[in-house]
């Protein structure tokens, strides 16, 4: 670094940051007081970091190891100052962390906010940490002065939230970060405004409410007015009062999880959760447990009420924090819970971990694996109990996180078995209700050999499938799969309680009466009788389909497209092609309904002139019809449209 300080520069915020600041300033969030919680949480994180790093590099502390956060309200300047002696930031870190939005969650938050479809602003904003920028909700100007340990110079950053900020190097004696908020007039006087953030009593209450558990003292000075006392210790009433400054610690610093769970109220748990994980809503469920024995730990886990927007993107990280004897080691501790449970938030505190354990070592630690196993077990047990005893709550959970469990059952071989009883599906059994696989089996008749399922984008499109008609008529229940992952999950499970899964659009239907030897004989007879017709259709559609069959699954529709039992299904082919993977193709089988009038027309056309244009057009039209029913687009829509038009104008011969 050069000796000369870097002079003041004015820089522009990144476009997305500007957008976020605009939202803050124009105040979409009514609960403005949370700005203090956010800044204190940042300060506490910064102290956590230096505390941790100083274990291996004591010099970082620069001789100052009493960690603290200090708050100074100043009536004369209308400022509120929050200082910490944490890790601070270098010049580049300030630019990186404060001028840009690096977090994908924030980006997707902004996108969602633009759409404004799913929730109100308050709900949305509550779902992600508004962080540092929340200071702009209450201020005209924010100044940040910071110095990282070992750096000769500090950095001063300042902005009025108007799209630009200034940054320069400055002298700063002590390590850490000081944030000076110049409060907007609205927040400096008690009259006419809801909040006065210069009022010590207000600040004290806010700290109690949001930041009581913070592990470092949050201090503020109070002016104490006292009348002097005489030699006997009696107050001298007529003497003028003297003012003394008294520094008080505002928070109790007792980590909630170390307390006895019978002494903790639901509200305390919820406030703790909301503060630590920046959620706006209470958690759906919490699990607080202590384990002693081979491995000793306390865990406090929360199942949120709502899934974050980025849960299913790869960037989403685990929400588990690791502590050792109440000292923070790391957040996003991925190895504690399997990937599919990454929506679970919480913490683990175990004296069995050394504080300076590296992520790499941790990954291989036996204790971590053991704790992880127990945590997974207790989350699944909690979900099982919810499913059995609190079905509406479980369904609420399922709506938010069901997909995570389905992905788990598909990708996590070891957990598949544990997850299968927790899965819910729509089915033909009841319109509004979801079913477990267990309940499906319970309702099955003794003769039913397999569990039927159908895929489609929603209930209406599945119910319109021609293949459904027969099953409905026979009163056979069919699971409806709407989610892309569903079919992968079903494929991975293969069977449930020894009943295999069977797509209604694949292979044989395995229905007793239609697959009976007599029915088979019938189909074979029709096939034989129409051998040359079938051959001609197959020949004409060569390259598009693998086979033509006489169907035993159609009632009133003329055709349907199915795939065989090997390889992938048609719906999976579509999913893969949406992911730009066109390597895998389902083998298409065109099934014809021999009882449909179209079949007779086709037969007559073929018998009259085996290779007439009309016959070929009819084959094409039937094929495209079958594709459309499956939600597939015709390869040549113009030719299809022309053929339909010709038919409508009865120009075909
Ligand atoms: N007091 C501080 N000391 C050191 N670094 C800080 C401080 N405040 C903020 N930062 C840095 O700025 C970054 C951005 O802060 P911001 O509050 O916007 O988000 P965050 O804390 O990362 O996320 P979230 O608020 O969602 O937990 C932090 O990750 C941290 O690196």
From TrEMBL:
CDD domains referenced in this protein's UniProt entry, alphabetically: HATPase_Hsp90-like (cd16927)
Subcellular localization(s) per the UniProt record: Cytoplasm
Keywords: ATP-binding, Chaperone, Cytoplasm, Nucleotide-binding, Stress response
Region (A): 1-359
Regions annotated as coiled coil: none
InterPro entries reported in the protein's UniProt record: HATPase_C_sf, HATPase_dom, Heat_shock_protein_90_CS, HSP90_C, Hsp90_fam, Hsp90_N, Ribosomal_Su5_D2-typ_SF
Transmembrane segments: none
Residues annotated for ATP binding in this entry: 38, 42, 84, 89, 97, 103-105, 127-132, 177, 359
Region of interest (C), ranges: 575-653
GO cellular component: cytoplasm
Domain Histidine kinase/HSP90-like ATPase as annotated: residue spans: 31-187
GO molecular function: ATP binding; ATP hydrolysis activity; ATP-dependent protein folding chaperone; unfolded protein binding
Self-association and partners: Homodimer.
Function according to Swiss-Prot or TrEMBL: Molecular chaperone. Has ATPase activity.
Family: Belongs to the heat shock protein 90 family.
Name the UniProt record assigns to this protein: Chaperone protein HtpG
């Amino acid at each position: 670094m050069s000796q000369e300080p870097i002079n003041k520069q004015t820089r522009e915020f990144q476009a997305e940051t500007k957008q976020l600041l605009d939202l803050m300033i124009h105040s979409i969030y009514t609960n403005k007081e949370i700005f203090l919680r956010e800044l204190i949480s940042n300060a506490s994180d910064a102290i956590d970091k230096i505390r941790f790093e100083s274990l291996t590099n004591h010099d970082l502390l620069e001789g100052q190891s009493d960690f603290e956060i200090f708050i100074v309200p100043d009536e004369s300047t209308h400022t509120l100052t929050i200082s910490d002696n944490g890790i601070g930031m270098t010049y580049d870190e300030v630019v990186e962390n404060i001028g840009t939005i690096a977090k994908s969650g924030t980006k997707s938050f902004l996108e969602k906010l633009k759409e404004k479809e799913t929730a109100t602003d308050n709900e949305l904003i509550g779902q992600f940490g508004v962080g540092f920028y929340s200071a702009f909700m209450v201020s005209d100007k924010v100044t940040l002065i910071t110095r990282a340990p070992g750096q000769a110079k500090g950095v001063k950053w300042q902005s009025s939230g108007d799209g630009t900020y200034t940054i320069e190097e400055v002298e700063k004696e002590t390590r850490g970060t000081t944030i000076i908020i110049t409060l907007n007039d609205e927040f400096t006087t008690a009259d006419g405004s809801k909040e006065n953030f210069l009022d010590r009593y207000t600040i004290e209450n806010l700290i109690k409410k949001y930041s009581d558990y913070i592990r470092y003292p949050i201090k503020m000075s109070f002016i104490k007015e006292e009348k002097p006392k005489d030699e006997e210790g009696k107050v001298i009433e007529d003497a003028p009062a003297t003012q003394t400054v008294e520094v008080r610690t505002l928070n109790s610093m007792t980590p909630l999880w170390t307390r006895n769970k019978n002494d903790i109220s639901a509200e305390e748990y919820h406030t703790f959760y909301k503060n630590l994980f920046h959620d706006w809503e209470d958690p759906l469920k919490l699990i607080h447990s202590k384990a002693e024995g081979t491995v000793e730990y306390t865990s406090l886990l929360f199942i949120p009420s709502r899934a974050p927007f980025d849960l299913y993107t790869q960037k989403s990280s685990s929400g588990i924090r690791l502590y050792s004897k109440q000292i923070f080691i790391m957040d996003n501790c991925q190895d504690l819970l399997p990937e599919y449970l990454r929506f679970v938030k919480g913490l683990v505190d175990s004296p069995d971990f050394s504080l300076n354990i590296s992520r790499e070592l941790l990954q291989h630690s036996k204790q971590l694996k053991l704790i992880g196993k127990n945590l997974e077990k207790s989350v699944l047990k909690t979900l099982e109990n919810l499913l059995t005893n609190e079905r509406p709550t479980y369904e609420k959970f399922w709506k938010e996180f069901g997909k995570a469990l389905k992905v788990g059952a598909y990708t996590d071989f070891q957990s598949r078995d544990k997850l299968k009883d927790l899965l819910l599906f729509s089915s033909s059994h009841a319109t509004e209700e979801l079913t477990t696989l267990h309940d499906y089996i319970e309702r099955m008749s003794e003769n039913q050999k397999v569990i039927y399922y159908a895929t489609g984008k929603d209930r209406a499109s599945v119910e319109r499938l021609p293949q459904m008609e027969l099953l409905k008529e026979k009163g056979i229940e069919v699971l409806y799969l709407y989610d892309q992952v569903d079919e992968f999950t079903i494929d991975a499970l293969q069977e449930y309680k020894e009943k295999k899964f069977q797509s209604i659009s694949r292979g044989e239907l395995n229905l007793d009466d239609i697959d009976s030897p007599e029915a088979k004989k019938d189909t074979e007879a029709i096939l034989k009788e129409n051998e040359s017709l079938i051959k001609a259709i197959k020949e004409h559609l060569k390259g598009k389909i693998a086979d033509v069959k006489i169907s035993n699954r159609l009632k009133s529709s003329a055709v349907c497209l199915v795939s065989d039992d090997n390889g992938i299904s048609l719906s999976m082919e579509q999913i893969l092609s949406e992911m730009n993977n066109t390597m895998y193709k389902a083998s298409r089988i065109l099934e014809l309904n021999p009882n449909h009038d179209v079949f007779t027309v086709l037969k007559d056309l073929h018998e009259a002139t085996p290779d007439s244009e009309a016959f070929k057009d009819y084959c094409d039209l039937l094929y495209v019809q079958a594709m459309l029913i499956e939600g597939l687009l015709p390869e040549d829509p113009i030719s299809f449209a022309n053929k339909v038009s010709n038919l409508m104008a009865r120009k075909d011969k």
